[in-house]
Design goal:
Order of helices and strands: HHHEEEHEEHEEEHHHEHEEHEEHHEE
Oligomer: single chain
Number of helices: 12
Number of strands: 15
Length: 558
């Protein structure tokens, strides 16, 4: 048993059962045995006392009855002294018999006639009393024992004990008579009887027998405690005690079982939540069954655990967000290195090549070739400058650290300047429908030029051959909408939503046909929104690919 418990940790329910067994079941069983034993001793003493009391009551009733009969016979004898003839005496005695029904016969007889009254025996339910008269004769009274019995047991009619009254070994009165019990009671009488004292005797301690041997008159009173009385007094009380203990135990088991059930369910909830947390499920919460059986500590633990899980979940979300941002930073770094190394290589190669050509001493370079080479070097340097500016403006956009010189700017001047700054090597037609627009917008002129230079260059790079780039405008409320359109294949909506992300291009790395960093639309969106504007992308059969820039109109134009 010890080895079993040492190898295996018990569950709470098992521990509670063991505690109940040792702390409740065994003590209550022992207490029940002790209480039952004490109760049995008490009831046994009560039975003995009751039997003695009943024997005394019957003895006193016999004394009262004997004294009453003797007094009555003395009065009758005294009255008879006044009668001179036997006829008058008999007439007086007949009157008494008529008034007192327990007298069977009253007569005045000579001493020689006394033996004839011996025919009345106890077996015939009659008793004979005699008293001498002054005339030398005797007054004889024959009494009905049934009336005697009624007077003796009038206060004991509800008692279940057996009571026997004997005169000279003849039974003269009884209650609850049973032949076998009577014979057994007589058989157990001791050889020598105590006089005029109640004595307890018998072989069965829970069924005490009591006798009183009276001398005046010479009668024997026996009280027998029957088995029914014992059962009612001892067994019935014992059964009540056992039933009370059983009900108490069942109540304890029920209450403890109910308490254990709810406690076990709530603890299982704790276990499940802890296991879920250990497996990375930070959204799991403890749902307790709260009622009168739920301890404060469990409710407190569940509440604090849920608070802890909420904090962990928030921290986990933040960590995921930071990891995602870190991943994006890593991707940004990789893409930036790849892009810079790729995009910077071409202009640097051109600059290096044309510079080396101009520095050669072994060949003669004409003026036209020299001018052309210098223009190429300048154009590639400007291209490098714009790429560097794009890279430098990204941290300012992400950190919201852009500085603007906001003023009223005529939109036509900005567009014309942007068109002039655009690198259009392919010679695609740019249709500017904004040159006659006199509306001014509220913006930073340098940043707005940077926006439209990027948009126009982007449209040139991604437009189909022999298709023009169209610049147009419209007014929408208090904002001027400038659109840059180019003919291109319809871009799916899902792809269109990602074009504002860094290093995102329409043609991916495996099908790339144009040069660029993939930062143009990201920078444009950041600059436009920082100046209080809005930018939207459209791609459909009507316009191909269209970028609309919404800028606030200057107050003077509203």
């Amino acid at each position: 048993m010890v080895q079993f418990f040492s190898k295996r940790r018990l569950k709470i329910a098992e521990q509670i059962i063991i505690v109940i067994f040792f702390a409740v079941l065994i003590p209550m069983t022992v207490s029940g045995v002790i209480i039952n034993n004490i109760n049995q001793q008490s009831n046994r003493a009560q039975l003995r006392s009751a039997a003695v009391m009943i024997a005394n009551i019957v003895s006193e009733e016999i004394d009262v009855f004997t004294h009453s009969i003797n007094n009555e016979l003395a009065q009758i004898a005294a009255t008879l002294e006044y009668y001179n003839s036997p006829v008058q005496e008999q007439k007086y005695l007949d009157t008494i018999i008529q008034n007192l029904s327990f007298y069977k016969e009253l007569a005045v007889v000579k001493e020689s006639e006394l033996p004839k009254y011996e025919i009345y025996s106890v077996q015939d339910d009659y008793a004979v009393f005699s008293r001498p008269l002054k005339s030398g004769k005797f007054l004889v009274a024959v009494l009905d024992i049934k009336n005697l019995q009624k007077n003796l047991f009038k206060t004991l009619t509800d008692d279940k004990r057996q009571i026997y009254v004997l005169a000279q070994k003849d039974l003269i009165a009884s209650i609850n008579y049973n032949q076998d019990d009577y014979n057994n009671s007589i058989k157990q009488l001791p050889q020598k009887l105590e006089k005029n004292l109640p004595v307890i005797y018998g072989d069965i301690k829970n069924q005490p027998l009591v006798y009183i041997k009276k001398t005046e008159p010479d009668v024997l009173v026996i009280v027998n405690t029957t088995e029914d009385v014992t059962k009612h007094t001892i067994d019935y009380n014992r059964d009540k005690i056992i039933l009370s203990i059983i009900i108490t135990m069942l109540t304890v088991f029920f209450v403890v079982g109910l308490y254990t059930y709810y406690l076990y369910i709530n603890i299982r909830q704790l276990f499940k939540a802890i296991i879920a947390i250990s497996k990375g499920n930070y959204e799991r919460r403890i749902r307790l069954l709260t009622n009168i059986f739920t301890p404060f500590e469990i409710v407190f633990l569940g509440t604090e655990f849920n608070k802890m899980v909420n904090q962990i979940h928030k921290s986990y979300i933040q960590l995921k967000k930071k990891n995602k941002e870190l991943k994006q930073v890593n991707e940004f770094r990789s893409n930036m290195i790849d892009t810079v190394s790729h995009e910077f290589r071409t202009p640097l190669t051109s600059i290096q090549g044309y510079t080396s050509r101009l520095l050669r001493q072994d060949i003669e370079i004409d003026e036209e070739t020299r001018i052309k080479s210098l223009k190429t070097i300048k154009r590639q340097a400007e291209r490098l400058k714009r790429m560097v500016e794009d890279l430098l403006v990204i941290p300012d956009i992400e950190g919201a650290r852009l500085n603007f010189n906001m003023q009223n700017i005529p939109i036509n001047a900005v567009i014309e300047s942007s068109v002039m700054l655009v690198r259009n090597d392919s010679g695609k037609e740019i249709i500017n429908n904004i040159k006659d627009c006199k509306i001014e917008v509220w913006a930073d002129i340098d940043r707005l030029e940077q926006v439209f230079v990027n948009l126009i260059e982007n449209a040139i790079k991604y437009s189909k051959e022999d298709s023009p780039i169209i610049l147009d405008y419209e007014i929408s409320g208090e904002r001027l909408v400038v659109s840059v359109k180019n003919d291109y294949d319809i871009i799916p909506r899902e792809k269109l939503k990602t074009l504002f992300d860094k290093f995102t291009r329409v043609d991916d790395s495996t099908t790339r046909t144009t040069r660029g960093t993939g930062l143009g639309l990201f920078i444009v969106k950041g600059l436009v929104e920082a100046m209080g504007g809005e930018i939207r992308l459209y791609s459909n059969e009507e316009c191909g690919f269209c970028v609309k820039v919404f800028m606030p109109i200057a107050e003077e134009n509203v």
